[in-house]
Design goal:
With 318 residues, the protein is an alpha+beta fold. It has 9 helices and 12 strands. Strand 5 and strand 6 form a beta hairpin. Helix 1 packs antiparallel against helix 2. The protein starts with 6 loop residues before the first strand and ends in a 6-residue tail after the last strand. The chain binds aspartic acid.
Length: 318
């Protein structure tokens, strides 16, 4: 146990999530899953564990929940396949791990963490990444485990509008095609960590890599500034190097956490027509949620121990 502040925040994706596109039952179930993920991470922090352990534990819960676009329930590519990706970063050492083009790893975030801890690389992809997962005893699953009827329907709807691979599309705007997951945490030793995991975007071209596995775009953590995980139209987050940009605005520009988060989403991302959101956590335990989409599944247990969850943009818990 420690008297230093501990805190955790998570997201389950941003996008066209409106009251009209959901129901009170769906909302309740989603909030329960967010709470389960928050408790999984927070339990580790209260026991004196590391922020890295906490973000991985929280993300695993969301990867296992079919509602979210990561692990089981990942969205499908144009070819109907699953290509998942994930990353983690430790804000104390700036060590990072990432994996992409995964079709069999049950919990991609565990592989990202393995790469951080046990390889001399930051990022691995495809068969090589899955071989490392298998050698180290991570659980592998076959395709039917990941693919849910809801994601098949989403792909069918997207293909009806954009049938050819060459005119791919703005299908990120479709309600429910989002759901990438992420977590940021501060542990009692003063260390920040961040993790992000996704299936990408519905109807993406096979081989497409988004922001989520890229250190600096979808994930970044530096004890001198913040831990950040993003969600939304990945190409746009990549182009503004969103997660690192937020940290740079704090470190070099003297911005507060809130100012930096707002600038990245409302200025940098909006300026190029990007939509989405992010979660950010500072070294004192301050938590910020920022979005320019209709909604973002999100939640936190702050330094006072208060748990909040929220879904729609104007939900009070912020
Ligand atoms: N950022 C993810 C991607 O583009 C998608 C999402 O956050 O929903 O792959």
């Amino acid at each position: 146990m420690t008297s230093n502040p501990i805190a955790i925040a998570i997201h389950g994706g941003a996008g066209a999530i409106t009251r009209d596109s959901t129901s009170p039952e769906v909302e309740r179930a989603a909030r329960e899953e967010l709470e389960t993920a928050l408790h999984a991470g927070h339990r580790i922090l209260t026991a004196g564990g590391t922020s890295l352990d906490a973000v991985v534990a929280a993300v695993c819960v969301l990867e296992d929940a079919p509602r979210f676009n990561a692990g089981k329930g990942a969205v499908l590519t144009h070819d109907g396949t699953v290509e998942m990706e994930a990353s983690v970063m430790d804000g104390g050492t700036l060590r990072a791990g990432a994996a992409t083009l995964l079709s069999r790893v049950k919990n991609p975030v565990k592989l990202a963490r393995l790469i951080l801890e046990q390889s001399r690389h930051v990022m691995l992809s495809g068969a090589g990444a899955e071989a490392l997962a298998s050698t180290n005893g991570l659980e592998l699953e076959d395709n039917p485990y990941f693919v849910t009827p809801r994601r098949i329907e989403q792909l069918e709807r997207a293909l009806a509008v954009h049938p050819t691979a060459t005119e791919l599309s703005e299908s990120e705007g479709e309600a429910g095609s989002t759901g990438t997951v992420g977590a940021v945490a501060l542990d009692g030793h003063g260390n920040l960590a961040a993790a992000t995991s996704t299936g990408g975007m519905t109807n993406k071209l096979s081989g497409r890599i988004g922001d989520s596995p890229l250190i600096g775009a979808g994930t970044y953590a530096d004890n001198r500034s913040a831990a950040v995980s993003t969600t939304g139209h990945g190409e746009m987050f990549l182009r503004v190097a969103a997660a690192h940009e937020l940290c740079a605005r704090i470190r070099h520009g003297g911005a507060s956490l809130r100012e930096a988060a707002s600038a990245v989403i409302q200025e940098d991302l909006s300026r190029i027509g990007g939509h989405g959101g992010l979660i950010a956590l500072g070294p004192t335990g301050e938590i910020v949620f920022e979005l320019n989409a209709e909604g973002m599944y999100r939640g936190a247990i702050d330094a006072s121990g208060k748990l909040t969850t929220a879904i729609f943009a104007n939900d009070p818990a912020r």
